[in-house]
Design goal:
Two copies of one chain form a homodimer.
Chain A (H helix, E strand, L loop, with lengths): L2 H14 L6 H12 L6 H8 L8 H13 L4 E5 L3 E5 L8 E4 L5 E3 L5 H12 L2 E12 L1 H6 L21
Helix pairs in contact in A: 1-2, 2-3
Chain A binds a DNA duplex through helix 4.
Chain lengths: 165, 165
DNA sequence: TTCCGTGCAAAGAGTTTGCATCTGT
DNA sequence: ACAGATGCAAACTCTTTGCACGGAA
């Protein structure tokens, strides 16, 4: 599903559920769906301010809360990196997080769902969702890093994109 | 390694690194290592208050920060469940989290490290650590739950223990 | 004796909430 | 018209920090 279809489908779905499509909401959702990374609440807010200068942070939080309830956004809470959101691919999938530049790359691992199902069967848990994240240095930071183990953090954005998987 | 050995080794290691072994620290660390679950900061604090009534929350946080730096405790940050700590097995391992009663069970999945290594090789990331959590209903809550999909949260403690894995 | 650790209180960040106003339907 | 959304500010939780006192080594 391409971004345009995803946006239209999402908006339809929200309308069907009785949610109102205010300009602010549409702007937030559009940004979320079109964003090629894993934006923070702050980034979403900044992105729509030019179009809707009075939009408050609270509205962004409320809109995200609504989307979360409907399962239309994946929330990635990190301790220090803050919370990031993925409105493009709301289904659980592995992430690779660079502890130096903060880049977050998606990865699709075939067979993961089966693995989760197997663990569920073995333990008796009814697994509804999961989270699989890996932390380390992205290729770019690896090349630049003084020492391969040094862990720092910055806001470099040279690798905020996706990985083929 | 049994709990007793783990405690002694950890204390030795801290001493070797020049940290002072105050009674409060020893109490916090002992509780952390002996705890059969994944205690919160608050729980650790409450646990040592009977022995050291003046201990502050700040000291617990500072002690945990020290242990984290030394890699002697695994921090599990959850959005709503708060942060939990594992001082028994600080190495990354999968967890099964019950979204109804809050129970957190450990699980050891053989072959996980190889899987992570494979993903690292494919993506070029230098993976230093990872996190793999599954969310759903534990066996006990499954049996009690009105509907298998209902997700609620409480502080039931009927299943805070470990799973064989 | 010397720092490091402790404990209190204040500060801080991120997120949520109450409420009056506004608006999509 | 009216239920629902917005925006502002206050509140809230969890965690960190500054600083003077106290205690481990």
């Amino acid at each position: 599903m391409d971004t345009r279809t995803r946006l239209a489908t999402l908006l339809d779905s929200l309308r069907d559920k009785g949610h109102r499509l205010t300009p602010q909401r549409v702007a937030i959702i559009r940004t979320l769906v079109e964003h090629d990374g894993h934006p923070t609440v702050e980034q979403l807010h900044q992105a729509i301010l030019p179009d809707f200068p009075t939009t408050s942070l609270a509205t962004v939080y409320k809109t995200i809360a609504m989307l979360k309830e409907d399962g239309e956004v994946l929330e990635l809470g990190f301790g220090e990196l803050g919370s990031r959101y993925d409105g493009k691919h709301p289904e659980p999938h592995p992430h690779l997080i660079c502890t130096r530049c903060g880049a977050i790359a998606d990865y699709s691992l075939q067979g993961l769902d089966e693995l989760v199902a197997r663990m569920a069967a073995e333990t008796g848990f009814a697994v509804a969702s999961h989270r699989f994240d890996m932390f380390g240095l992205c290729p770019a930071c690896r090349a630049t890093a003084p020492k391969p183990n040094t862990v720092a953090q910055s806001d470099a954005d040279h690798a905020t994109g996706q990985l083929p998987g």
